[in-house]
Design a protein that fits this description.
Layout: H1 2-18, H2 21-24, H3 51-82, H4 86-100, H5 118-148, H6 153-165, H7 167-180
Helix pairs in contact: 1-5, 3-5, 6-7
Length: 181
């Protein structure tokens, strides 16, 4: 169960932290609403994106941004109420990831699994399960927000990739976000 959490949690974390490269100021189109390892569609021509689609995209971005903020707050609340500090939760998560991928680089301050008590691990697993549920709900809400704005999720993804790769489109979206925010 914990292994499934880590895999799905990693995907959800990518989703929550980088649904929109413009919003997060990242230029990684592979991180937008895709499962890791899934084939990536070709880039869409920015000229094929209508003004109406761009407006719907910006509205969805704003809604998604709010969903992400709420999800982060809820996850922090879960960690805090578990009795673990955010730092300790992160250390345990890193230790579990390092155990599963021993060749992966470790972060400064990383701990070994042997440094984690059974009680801490049980507390971590309970909190992680709650966070996974929060992430799953957030993912569903983000997808629904896209649809509610009148875009198919696939079209939203195409526009997000185009925005992340075209500086002119990035500027246009940023201006639209600023004028509405």
């Amino acid at each position: 169960m914990l292994k499934n959490f880590l895999v799905s949690g990693s995907i959800c974390a990518v989703l929550l932290s980088a649904v929109l490269p413009v919003q997060a100021q990242q230029a990684n189109p592979e991180s937008t609403l895709y499962a890791q390892g899934a084939p990536q569609p070709e880039m869409v021509d920015p000229a094929s994106i209508s003004q109406q689609e761009l407006e719907m995209f910006v509205e969805a971005v704003q809604t998604i941004s709010g969903i992400q903020a709420q999800s982060r707050e809820a996850a922090v609340s879960v960690v805090e109420s578990s009795g673990l500090t955010a730092e300790r939760f992160s250390q345990i998560l890193q230790a579990l990831r390092s155990e599963q991928a021993p060749d992966a680089p470790t972060e400064e301050g990383a701990i070994a699994m042997s440094d984690i008590s059974a009680e801490e691990l049980a507390t971590f697993e309970q909190a992680a399960t709650q966070i996974a549920q929060i992430q799953q709900t957030a993912q569903q809400e983000m997808r629904q927000a896209i649809v509610d704005e009148g875009l198919a999720v696939e079209r939203f993804q195409e526009i997000a990739r185009a925005v992340s790769s075209d500086s002119g489109l990035q500027q246009q979206v940023q201006q639209m976000l600023e004028s509405q925010g």
